[in-house]
Amino acid sequence: MKNQFLALAFASIVLVGCGSTKKVSNTEAALSTPIATSINLTKVVDDKAPVLINPGRFTQDTVTYRLPRVVQGTYAISDFGKYIDSFKAFNYEGVEIPTNKIDVNSWTIANAENLDYITYYVNDTFDIEEVGGIGGEQPFSPSGTNIEPNNYVLNLHGFIGYFDSLKNNQYTLDIQSPKSFKRSSALQKVNETTSEDGKVVTTSYVAPRYFDITDNPMMYGDLDVEEFQVGDIKIVLSVYSPTKAHTAKKLRATMEKMMQAQKAFLGDINTTPRYDIFLYLAGEGEDQPKGFGALEHNTSTVVVLQESETDESLDESMIDVVSHEFFHIVTPLSVHSGDVQYFDYNKPTFSKHLWMYEGITEYFATLFQVNQGLIDEPAFYSKLVDKINMSLRMDDTMSFTEMSENVIDEPYASNYYNVYQKGALIGMCIDIIMREESNGQRSVLSLMKELSMKYGNNKPFDDDTIIDEITAITYPSIGEFLKKHVEGTTPIDYNVYFNKVGLVEGDGKVETNYLLNNGNLILGGDPVKRTIFFSDLVKDNSFWNEQGVLPNDVIKSVNGEEMTVVNANDMLQKMITMQPGDDIEVVLDRNGEEVVIKTKLTKSYTTGKVLKQNPDATAQQNALREAWLKN
């Protein structure tokens, strides 16, 4: 990023600052002018932050300014224009000029030759979320924004837009904030000044093009920040915890151990000198974000989780989500199609290969844990079985490439979650095939290394020919698998691949949580009575069974909080993070009789399919399993 900035800055000096006698076209002149932007966090009004956009002089009559409809990595409609208020444009005399809002995210301005600057206010998304971007047309929380007196989550695509003709212009950004704030940014900082009264700090940043605005989030406010090295990568961990229940210092040990293991797993793949982790922990209340997880960026990730999680639960959640996001430095950072390279924020097209971007990434995030000794083999096998069970709840005959290319439309949108389930299992199958074909020497990781060497950050592959290309550099069996199970509609028989590595499926005792058995929710809802009750599956959940819970028992409250169909989502999100040892009090209604369960949580188990080593496996099968898991 630094080299790109210097090159653009140098070009700007040559064209503008040195009085060159070369005749410059209108287009070249426009591209040489940085778009100057500012966000003033000291002038927030009614929970809205003021933004100013100065694009430089236009030579055309009409221009269009947009906020993103869709942002990369979300595969869903966000419509950030919905959060813009008081959009105004001004001429060079400081007089307001007309604007026309043509859709939810776009404004046109006529007589643009007279346009000096634009102003508007941005409302944040966190405090008005309904479902956190899950199943609705609103931003997924980790792609959203937060405006509070002591915390600002600055996913910049929620604050700064683009002119259709100027997406490749350099951007400058000034952010004014109270001096007491900590400022953590993935964007390149170039200057910082303090006001004469010492109360306000203006931090100046630069972005080579609009993509870099959207790809470099920030967090400001009452933060806790830790830095550490993982090989030659500097890791910056920024944490906002409303009650200080969690700190960056406590999380650092887990993150450092995990990322050292990831770096060891990746070997010589190294695409960034710095990686930022921004963690927002949601507190209690309706104004808190509701979509938990993370959103990847090329050199950073924004994570939203619950502050109510225990230290152990938060560590586990961070390992799951951050390891996945960090592995995105392989794909799509180094290996991606033109749909990613030339992303259209208003009318995006999507690559056919989410099995690669999200599936392979999720597979790496699962495999590296057993490869590096963070979990044992039975725990790894259990994760695979969980993914199989979850994937089978979706359309197992849907073409993965067709789903990927149409991911924001139904019926494909409802199957998006399968990229983390079946997508990862596709990665597993490819890995096992490559190990078998090469006597254990090649893998899906080595394949991704080969592709990253050929393509890299700035060279996209052809979406329609990449499968043929992968087949050419690997084996016909890989091509056959991709054509049949990824492009095609044939479900995968995973036992075929488990047999290759000496594993066999059988019945056994499976650790579960307090809401699911083998991926199936053990609760039901009555829309008429507006109640939540235990289903017949509760009989197969050891914890609730031991407490004497029966099918059709209605849950009246959990830990003193009433449960209804209205708040069920929030309540269940809290329950799924509960850990053995936590105190719990549940009040049930059993046919009009009140039943109270007050105890400490213990591990819960159910019966289901488990993977285990086949005692009759051949030496060749055992050797292939060893290469798969440990090489």
SSE diagram, text form:
Blueprint: H1 2-17, H2 26-31, E1 35-40, E2 48-54, E3 63-66, E4 84-91, E5 96-97, E6 100-103, E7 106-109, E8 115-123, E9 146-148, E10 151-154, E11 162-163, E12 171-178, E13 182-185, E14 188-194, E15 200-207, H3 210-214, E16 218-221, E17 224-230, E18 233-240, H4 248-266, E19 274-282, E20 293-297, E21 300-306, H5 311-326, H6 338-341, H7 354-371, H8 377-391, H9 400-405, H10 422-437, H11 444-454, H12 466-473, H13 476-487, H14 494-500, E22 503-512, E23 516-517, E24 520-521, E25 523-526, E26 531-534, H15 542-546, E27 554-558, E28 561-562, H16 568-576, E29 583-590, E30 593-600, E31 604-613, H17 619-630
Parallel strand pairs: 1-12, 18-19, 19-21
Antiparallel strand pairs: 1-2, 2-8, 3-7, 3-11, 4-5, 4-8, 6-7, 9-10, 10-16, 12-15, 13-16, 14-15, 17-18, 20-21, 22-31, 23-24, 25-26, 27-28, 27-29, 29-30
Describe this entry's structure for a reader.
The protein contains 17 helices and 31 strands. With 631 residues, it is α+β, with helices and mostly antiparallel strands. The strands form eight sheets. An eight-stranded mixed sheet has the order 5-4-8-2-1-12-15-14. Strands 17-18-19-21-20 form a five-stranded mixed sheet, with helices on one face. Strands 6-7-3-11 form a four-stranded antiparallel sheet, with no helix packed on it.
